Amino acid sequence: MQCKRRWLPSWQRVELVDWCLGEGLPRRQAAARRRVSVSTVQYWIDRYRNASDAERASGAWAQDRPSTPHRQPTRSSDELHDRVCQARTRTGWGPRLIASELGIAHATVSRCLKRRGMSRQPPAPREAVQRFEWPCPGALIQNDVKRFARFSSPGHAVTGNRHRTGAEKRQRVGYEFAHSAIDDHSRLAYTELHRDEKAATVIGFTERAIAFFAAHGIIIERWQTDNAWTYTHNKALAALFDSHGIRHRTIAPRTPRHNGKVERYQQTLKREWGLGQRYRSSDARAAALPHWLHHYNNERNHSSLGNRPPITRVRNDLRQNS
């Protein structure tokens, strides 16, 4: 380990040697110029004289040396380091288990792992990303719900004031739910805000979402949701899908990545609409949703679509298929 002597940088050490050996300046005067002791000046002169030609040419003689002792009789051998690292690689155990297997102190194991840079296990390799996209608009619509807290006035994150009166603490304004549907191919999205996520609300939203996509020339073939009760045990919703010739699909349990398009859309919805502006109340936030949704569908560029808005992909694909 090196101890950096910041009070005398390397270029000042070179100056001290140049003054004394090159210009013939007395050591006491050179020490006074740099506000160091005479012994310090003599130390760097000796370092320069004892250095090789290569060290003088590169300036290595003026650099800090490691403070590690020249001899370390009790230091663990390289063979022991190799045994510890092999056990770590083979088993993935921590220092205490490795110490019990090898019969050495766990502190020794910890030091060996630290010296070899193996104190922390490397992250487990991730599965390769399998990107999938349906070939045409309407082939699959992904549907999900995201909850947003309602508020009657801006919170401390906006105002900076954490003080609340008793009436404000007792006030319960509840939540509102953003029901969203997005086309897997074009990323065209439709969102509504409701005070609940009951079966009747889901049916009404689904009807209007189907009409929204139909207005853009998209005929829906499949509708994908998670396994929420309002989707899987809703007979009226099943009848609605049957009447439009739509196949209802559900994702595997505990795998929201299978609904990845709408999950990613909800992150964008929260970041750019929910938190992107400072609203006076949740009602003001709700009033801004149609404007943001129009911007998302018609103006906002998507990197996955070649930096084009979703509406351009809908028009281009429908024109090609017609």
From TrEMBL:
Q: Which domain of life is it from?
A: Bacteria
User: A single GO molecular function, which one?
Assistant: nucleic acid binding
Signal sequence span is: none
What organism does this protein naturally occur in? Baekduia soli
Indicate what this protein is called per its UniProt record.
IS481 family transposase
Looking up Pfam families in the UniProt record yields: HTH_32, rve_3
The portions of this protein that span the membrane are: none
- Specify where the region named Disordered lies, as residue ranges: 55-82, 298-322
Ranges where the Integrase catalytic domain occurs: 131-317
